[in-house]
Every structure is written in structure tokens, then in C-alpha cells.
Hints:
By secondary structure, the protein is mainly β.
Amino acid sequence: MWLHGEQGMALLVEDDQEVTLSGDDPQAGTVLLRPVTTAALLAACGFTEGPGAVRLSDPAAFEPVQRDERWVRVDELDQDGRIGGHTPLFLRQVLASLDPRQPVPPTVTWRQDDSPSCRCGCGRHAAGAADIAEAQVPAAAVRTEVTVEVPRFLRAGTAVIMPKVVPDIVVGVGATLTIAANVPHLLIGNLLCYRRSRIRQESQHLSVDATGTVQGSIPEYVHQVVGDRLELNLDRLRELPRLPV
């Protein structure tokens, strides 16, 4: 259930209950973030490993912005299954060719498989996948070098993401929290999980950034509900023995 916490609305999954956190949940907060570096752009699109990997909470990598029609959301597909007019497959090929330590170039080059379907890189013919991070290129016998123009919204810095924001999450004893597939990015303050609790994700790609205390297998209650408020006793938590997760 949703309760008032110190920093905003907090989520409590009560003992032995199951709750799903969805991108459509009106109680969870949101923030519009613009990646200001190439490494941040790659992180926003699901490339979270390798040199230059960054956190969503890093102010040098992401800046909060106001809603504006010029922004292009790279964390959701439009009604045609595209992002900024391009298929997820094409965008993944472009992003995979970027150097996280360098500015986004005007063009990129890669070697790709030739097949009966068009893979010219134009973004008009290639078949898309569920999202950028999950797109894959099938194997083929012949490989061709292709140079394409990087989409303007990637070069102009108008790509944005909208993470869900939950200051505090508490998962009770034997409880299960499911992160829905339409939540690719999640910003958390404190994440406290009691014994036998579980957290499941429905998507193949989920980026979670916790800026506060994260601890699992907590043996004793360190929270209490007072009216419609959730209170955490982090001092008491620090005194408890840490059990294997």
C-alpha cells in the first residue's frame, strides 16, 4: 500500500502480500531526465555496463528538465512501435557503435548481416523488438559494412527518459514486489526487504538506482505505520545483524 514517507509517497508491501509497481501507477512519482553525456545516453537506453557506465542519480550525467514537445522519450515506444521515428533494432545498432567517452558523432559505421529483409539502417524497414535493450540481429552468412546518419535527437541532446521515483520501498516478510515491464528505470531512496521477501522484474532490462539504504533479509521490524505515514528506524536497522540474503 502507498503511504506518506519523509520524502514523498512510499510503498509498503505487507507481509505475505504481492504488489506490482507499474508505470501507470499514479502514486509513484516521476522525473524527466535528459542525458548530458554519451555514457548517460547509453545508460538511458539500456547499455549499463562497460567503460563510462553511470548512475541515474549522477547530476553530472543526467539533468532534470521540464516537459517540452521537443523531447523524444527513449524509454518507451510510440503507437507505431518506434522511438523518434526509428525502430528499436536500428537504434540499438547505432547506440552500440558509440564510444561512451566521446560526443555523439554525425554518423556511425558497423558491419551487419545481409538478409532478404532490408537492413540498410534507414529505420524504415527493419523489424523492431520490444525495446532498444532487447533488440537482436539474426545471424547470416554475408556481412556488409554500413555507414548511417545518427538520428538527430541523439545528436541534439533531446533524448529523455522518465524514471519512476519512489523514495522508500519496504517489502514485508514473505512478500513479493513485482516491477512491471513498463518500468525500465526506477529511482529509489531506501529499499528494505525482510526475511523471505522477493523482488521480481517482468522486463529483460531494468535500471534501478538506490541512493539510500539497501538491505535484505532484515530479521526484525524497523518500520511502523502511523496513520497514513510510513516511518523507518534506520538507526535500529544498523544495530541488527546482517543475515545472508
